[in-house]
Amino acid sequence: MTLKLTPKQQQILLLIRDSQLTRGYSPTLQELADELGVSKVTVFEHVEALIKKGALNRDPNKARSLELSDNAVLPNEVRNTRLPLVGSIAAGRPIEAIEDREMLDLEELFSPPGASRTGDVFVLRVKGDSMIDDQIRNGDFVICQRADTAHNGQTVVAILPDENEATLKRFYKERGRIRLQPANEAYEPIWVDHCQIQGIVIGLVRTY
Predict the structure, then answer these.
(1) What is the pLDDT of residues 92-122, one digit of tens each?
(2) Is 69 a catalytic residue?
(3) Report field, pTM of the whole predicted structure over 0.70
(4) Is 130 among the residues known to form the active site?
């Protein structure tokens, strides 16, 4: 049964859900207030109302503990076919890592809708041709499972150290260093001592 929520309460739930998907954690009350353009007290009142309605859970002894409950289903918004489109990823030279607030709806791309993966996933649009031999082309959408570690040979979203630049490459750890390997002979591998893994590619979407 869909809960009876005010528009502002629905907006708060969406902001919490989007933050968890794109950043991996829930927003603070102050961040919600800044996003909505209201006071922290107002947000607190809405959050308390959502908790009483069973739409939110919160641990008062833990920061960023707001969690959507199983009852917090927003009509026409929370669907397994809707994935957060959080930016673009370089398949050539690295580019600045930027997160947007768009959504990629697989149900709109394909009819009838196919099976979807559940869990903490996000989508990136590929720019460049350095992964072309792995059949990842410029303009493709790669579906990624959020992760902070990877096994050798997996295709990962990696943030290069000290540069805040993201790149899509195959991950290899060898000789105490990390090799980010392109799938195109025209590109040299990127060698780093360390990098931040944000996700592992689990699927690809291409439109024609």
Answers:
(1) 766 665 555 566 666 555 433 333 444 477 8
(2) no
(3) no
(4) yes
